[in-house]
Specification:
This protein is an all-alpha fold and 193 residues long. Helices cover 77% and strands 0% of the residues.
C-alpha cells in the first residue's frame, strides 16, 4: 500500500497512528533499558532475595486488564451506536485506571512495612529498582488518564461516531500499550529475582 495515496484525512489518520507507534516504541526502549539494568544488577552482593512481592501489585494486574477490556468494549459500543453503554465503559476504564494507581501505592506501602526503603541509610537497590520502574509506569498511566478524560469529554460532545473514532483509537492504542507494559513489568519483576 502506497502511504502517499488517499485523501488528506486518511493521510493524517495514518500519520497520527504512526506517531503513536513511534511513541510506544520509545517507551518500550526506556523500560527495556531499566529491566536490562535490573538483570545486570542482580550480580551485586547486596541483592535482596527475601523481598515478598506485594499482593497489591498482583491485584493491580487484574485491575489493569479489566480497564483494557472496558475500553475495548467501549469502542465496540460506539461502533454499534450504543452511547449509554459506551459512557459507562469509558468511565469504568477511568475508574479502573485510578484504582490501579492506588494499588501501586499500596504495594509501596507493603514493601516499606517489610522494612525495605527506596532511599536513605537502610535503602537497598532492589526496592529502589522497583520504585523507579513502577513510578515511571505510574507517570505513563497518569498520562493515559488524561487521555481518557479527553476521550470521555469528546464522547460527551458526540465527536465519536461509527467509523469516526480516531481520537478513541489513538487513546486506546496508548492505554492498551500501558496495560500490556504493566503485565510485562509485573511478570518480569515477579519472576526475575
Amino acid at each position: 500500500m502506497d502511504l502517499t495515496q488517499g485523501t488528506t484525512k486518511e493521510k493524517q489518520k495514518r500519520a497520527k497512528k504512526t506517531m503513536m507507534w513511534f511513541a510506544m516504541i520509545s517507551m518500550t526502549m526506556t523500560f527495556a533499558g531499566l529491566t536490562s539494568a535490573y538483570v545486570v544488577s542482580k550480580s551485586r552482593t547486596d541483592w535482596l532475595t527475601d523481598l515478598v512481592f506485594p499482593d497489591a501489585f498482583i491485584i493491580s494486574v487484574g485491575v489493569i486488564i479489566a480497564s483494557s477490556a472496558c475500553l475495548y468494549f467501549a469502542k465496540k459500543a460506539i461502533d454499534q451506536e450504543n452511547r449509554s453503554l459506551a459512557t459507562i465503559l469509558l468511565v469504568a476504564t477511568f475508574i479502573f485506571g485510578v484504582l490501579f494507581i492506588y494499588m501501586q501505592f499500596q504495594g509501596f506501602k507493603d514493601i516499606m512495612e517489610q522494612g525495605y526503603y527506596f532511599t536513605g541509610p537502610s535503602a537497598n537497590i532492589v526496592p529502589t529498582f522497583l520504585y523507579i520502574i513502577v513510578v515511571l509506569h505510574i507517570v505513563h498511566v497518569i498520562a493515559g488518564l488524561v487521555v481518557l478524560l479527553v476521550v470521555i469529554y469528546n464522547h460527551f460532545k458526540q465527536k465519536y461516531q461509527r467509523a469516526q473514532t480516531l481520537g478513541l483509537e489513538l487513546g486506546g492504542m496508548y492505554w492498551h500499550f500501558v496495560d500490556i507494559l504493566w503485565v510485562y513489568l509485573f511478570l518480569f519483576l515477579y519472576f526475575v529475582r
